[in-house]
Amino acid sequence: MEQTLMAWLLPALTLLVGITIGFVAARLLSSEAPSRTQRQLDELQERFDTYQSEVVTHFNTTANLVKKLTQSYSEIQEHLSEGASRLALDELTRQRLLATLQNEENLGNHERLSSATAPEAPKDYAPKLADAPGMLDEQFGLKGRH
Fold first, then answer.
1. What are the tens digits of pLDDT across the range 77-111?
2. What is the mean pLDDT of residues 43-54?
3. What is the maximum alpha-carbon separation in the chain?
4. How many angstroms separate the Cα of 88 from the Cα of each of 6, 25, 50, 101, 115?
5. Does residue 61 surpass a pLDDT of 90?
6. Whole-model pTM above 0.70?
7. How far apart are CA 50 and CA 53, in angstroms?
8. Which one of 72, 91, 94, 124 has the largest count of C-beta atoms within 10 Å of its C-beta?
9. H helices then E strands: how many in the chain?
10. Which pLDDT score, from 0 to 100, does residue 110 have?
11. Can you tell me the distance from the alpha carbon of 73 to that of 104, in angstroms, rounded to the nearest whole number?
């Protein structure tokens, strides 16, 4: 009977020791995994905050540069108006220059940059002579038989 008890007791103790070791290992690993995940999450949050800060800085700088550009354009227009008033030889020339400058100020950027003539649509055919066959003609491109 002692051998039977020993045959059952040894595997049972081994099972208990294995369960205990597994439980302790699981507790240690589970406490380590959230801290690693938390570190990764904190790192991602820090990178995102840095990116947001850079975006805000970029757009603030852009807004300031556009404001300076607008001010410079206004100063140039004012300088040209003063120059036209001061340097024009006669009253008619002065009035024409000032009128031109006023018209340019009133025009939108799109109107000022557009060309005087409308662009021509691309042609989907080759131009031909009046008496020559067109590209869709059956004889187009074929040499006559002699």
1. 888 888 877 777 777 777 777 787 777 666 554 45
2. 95
3. 134
4. 121, 93, 56, 13, 28
5. yes
6. no
7. 5
8. 94
9. 3, 0
10. 46
11. 12
Q: Which two tokens stand for residue 92?
A: 């008619």
The dihedral over CA atoms of 60, 62, 66, 68, expressed in degrees to the nearest 10, equals: 70
140 phi-psi bin (left φ>0, alpha ψ -120 to 50, beta other): beta
Sign of CA dihedral 100, 101, 102, 106: positive
Residue 29 — pLDDT band, cuts 50, 70, 90? confident
20 φ/ψ angles, rounded to the nearest 5 degrees: -65, -45
Residue type, 1: M
Residue 48, judged by CB atoms within 10 A of its CB (0-12, 13-18, 19+), counts as exposed
CA 70, 83, 114: angle at the middle one, nearest 5?
50
CA distance 136 to 139: 8
